């Protein structure tokens, strides 16, 4: 399903319906490093893994492959899907995920719009997307057909510039806005002001 977030009227109603069955959490480490992000992901997976399907998004193909390797080394049943995989491998990964043989799939945005898998209980934005339209498409992989779902998003200082727009989208959809997201919006605003004065 395609739509533009910035449209008025119907998109507010659509977002309200679309996001109504999704619980949203924002995760930000006290300090940013790849090691801290991975350890936060592992702790999150330890808390939520119950045999349900989990879709994890990365920004890049290389990031997907790297995260998949790290997770498999740690014993997680994860597979990656992205545009550099040949069609037969993508089909195999998707089938393994659909059937639950591999309950964790790590993907680029190719999976945000291009797959239809029921019963994805959790979506994790390991890398926050570059646009809020991509964010909505990503988290829309969970909470489908009336089922409940949860979306977790890792947020770094480079993502703070999107915080205000994300607050607006969540508010318009009737979602609770995490207090930390307001802090990020203020930090981005202060950074913008600082750049204007130099």
Describe the model.
By secondary structure, the protein is α/β, with parallel strands linked by helices. It has a single domain, classed as 3-Layer(aba) Sandwich (Rossmann fold), CATH 3.40.50.300. The protein has 8 helices and 6 strands, in the order αβαβαβαβαβαβαα. The protein has helices at 10-18, 34-48, 61-73, 87-99, 110-114, 132-139, 163-172, 179-196, and strands at 22-27, 53-57, 78-81, 104-107, 120-125, 149-154. Strands 1-6-5-2-4-3 form a 6-stranded parallel sheet, sandwiched between helices. Strand 5, helix 6 (132-139) and strand 6 (149-154) form a beta-alpha-beta unit. Helix 7 runs antiparallel to helix 8 (179-196). The protein starts with 9 loop residues before the first helix and ends with a helix. Residues 1-11 have low confidence and may be disordered.
Output the keywords.
8 helices; Rossmann fold; 198 residues; globular; disordered N terminus; 16% strand; 6-stranded parallel β-sheet; alpha/beta
Top CATH class:
Alpha Beta
CATH homologous superfamily heading? P-loop containing nucleotide triphosphate hydrolases
The total domain count is: 1
State the helix count.
Answer: 8
Shape: globular
Query: If strands are numbered along the chain, what order do they take across the biggest sheet?
Result: 1-6-5-2-4-3
Order of helices and strands: HEHEHEHEHEHEHH
Cα-based radius of gyration, to the nearest Å? 17 Å
Report the strand count. 6
pLDDT average, as an integer?
Answer: 81
**Strand-pairing-aware structural class:** alpha/beta
- Return the CATH architecture: 3-Layer(aba) Sandwich
Cα separation of the termini: 44 Å
